[in-house]
């Protein structure tokens, strides 16, 4: 649990990556989820397309009214020369903040946040945004926040 806006919130974070190859397992996690954190890698443009074409349709199918936050992970890799060169050799480039923010608005995300595991950049902001979104949707009437 953690303290948020003067209240003690019981936070449950579930990582659905384990269910990537097991849809039944993944789908079993959706009921009771208060907010989804949908991630892609800014260094892998195809992963953002998968968000729009695979993950969001699935989430909307199983949990149509649950809000979600779009997260651009590995933001630190955007400026790594070897990553940029590798993408350029395939006619691609890293996803820019502006591009991802535009996608977030278009698909109805609560917000767009970039993170970097190397420095834990914006992880606290992500968790706070998730909790605030859940409390806003539930009219402040919740002491439990399940994030998938």
What layout of secondary structure does this protein have?
Layout: E1 2-4, E2 7-13, H1 23-29, E3 36-41, H2 45-62, E4 68-73, H3 81-88, H4 97-107, E5 112-114, H5 123-137, E6 144-147
Parallel strand pairs: 2-6, 3-4, 4-5
Antiparallel strand pairs: 1-2
What does this protein look like?
GO terms for molecular function: GTP binding; GTPase activity. Keywords: GTP-binding, Nucleotide-binding. One of its GO terms (biological process) is small GTPase-mediated signal transduction. This protein is an alpha/beta fold and 148 residues long. It has one domain (2-147): Rossmann fold. The chain contains 5 helices and 6 strands, in the order ββαβαβααβαβ. It has helices at 23-29, 45-62, 81-88, 97-107, 123-137; strands spanning 2-4, 7-13, 36-41, 68-73, 112-114, 144-147. The strands form 2 sheets. A 3-stranded mixed sheet has the order 1-2-6, covered by helices on one side. The chain has a 3-stranded parallel sheet with strand order 3-4-5, with helices on both faces. The protein is globular and about 50 Å long. The two termini are 16 Å apart.
């Amino acid at each position: 649990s953690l303290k948020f806006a003067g209240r003690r919130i019981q936070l449950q974070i579930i990582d659905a990556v384990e269910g990537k190859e097991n849809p039944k397992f993944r789908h079993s996690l959706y009921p009771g989820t208060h907010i989804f954190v949908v991630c892609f890698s800014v260094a892998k443009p195809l992963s953002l397309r998968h968000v729009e074409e695979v993950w969001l349709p699935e989430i909307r199918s199983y949990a149509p009214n649950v809000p979600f936050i779009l997260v651009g992970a590995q933001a630190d890799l955007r400026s790594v020369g070897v990553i940029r060169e590798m993408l350029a050799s395939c006619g691609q480039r890293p996803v820019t903040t502006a591009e991802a923010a535009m996608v977030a608005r278009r698909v109805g995300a609560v917000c767009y946040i970039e993170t970097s595991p190397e420095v834990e950049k914006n992880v606290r902001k992500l968790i706070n945004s998730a909790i605030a979104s859940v409390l806003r949707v539930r009219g402040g009437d919740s002491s439990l926040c399940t994030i998938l």
